[in-house]
Amino acid sequence: MNDADDTGSARANGWRRGRRGAERWPGGTAPDGVPLIELQAIHKWFGPLHVLQGIDLVCERGDVVAIIGPSGSGKSTLLRCMNLLELPASGTVLFKGREISDVRVNLNHVRAHIGIVFQAYNLFPHRTALDNITLALRQVLKLSAAEARERALTGLRHVGLSDKVDAYPGRMSGGQQQRVAIARALAMQPDVILFDEVTSALDPELVGEVLEVMRALARENRTMVVVTHEMSFAREVASRLVFMDEGAVIEEGDPRTLLSNPKSERLKRFLADVL
Ligand SMILES: Nc1ncnc2c1ncn2[C@@H]1O[C@H](COP(=O)(O)OP(=O)(O)OP(=O)(O)O)[C@@H](O)[C@H]1O
Ligand SMILES: [Mg+2]
């Protein structure tokens, strides 16, 4: 985007230019018609391994995008490129229409707006559920202790864990710990949350409670990108399904259509293996 474009609606929506032309983080919403996240021709290599081979992907506000595909197909790497935990070798990551894969963008700001929840919940064992959540609110968002506490309590209520405020992770089930991790992401009030196989490490009987929290978030119209092996979740909850194989998007579209009527041999084979 050139400088002439820069003074128009995008700036009116809260985008500002900082010192030396560096992009400051936007306060407002995206200009009309601009996707929340857009990936354009993303490539990523790990050494000789071409892990992402030109990925284009659009996530609109309110979308629940489910990403499925075989192990090693690049799902996690793609998700991590969305919030720049991995830097693409080439291609563009746009957030609200602005390039964030630009070296001048402050990565802490990116990650405050694009939350992520991992398979391993990564809670601090020596901190209570509440403190695990308030930590980033205090350090990254610079909230006061009272504000952080209020937001953390709201987050815990949201995931049905009001009774675990003062519990340490070691005294919680895996499902409860994962719900704390989701509450931690929610408390940042991000525009979108990325979920990377958040139920895969859980005992089968604990998967349901975490999926139920994610279903509730989808019903609230939250924007989510979900890498998952849970095909029924993808079918029922996702607004769009993306099937990846060998670093490329092979098929994408309506989840029910894709799952009941796969076109490519690769998706047919994958579904035959997992279903
Ligand atoms: N940090 C890394 N260094 C080197 N290779 C990596 C790294 N991270 C991932 N890879 C490789 O990149 C490829 C894609 O990995 P990725 O984790 O994105 O796949 P995935 O689709 O998420 O797989 P899974 O379903 O098993 O989680 C794999 O071959 C993996 O071994
Ligand atoms: Mg993965």
Explained architecture:
Helices cover 37% and strands 22% of the residues. It is an alpha/beta fold. The chain is built from eleven helices and ten strands. α5 (129-139) runs parallel beside α7. The radius of gyration is 19 Å and the shape is globular. β9 (240-245) and β10 form a beta hairpin. It has a six-stranded mixed β-sheet, sandwiched between helices. It has a four-stranded antiparallel β-sheet with strand order 2-1-4-5, with helices on one face. Mean pLDDT is 89; it is low at 1-24.
Question: What small molecules are bound in this structure?
Answer: adenosine-5'-triphosphate, magnesium ion
Q: List low-confidence stretches.
A: 1-24
Q: Describe the sheet with the most strands.
A: 6 strands, mixed
What radius of gyration results from the CA coordinates?
A: 19 Å
Number of strands: 10
Sheet with most strands: strand arrangement: 6-7-8-3-9-10
* Principal-axis shape: globular
* Secondary-structure element string: HHEEEHEEHEHHHEHEHEEHH
Beta-sheet strand percentage?
15-25%
Helix content: 25-40%
What is the straight-line distance between the termini?
A: 45 Å
* Content-based structural category: alpha/beta
Number of helices: 11
Q: On the 0-100 scale, what is the average pLDDT?
A: 89
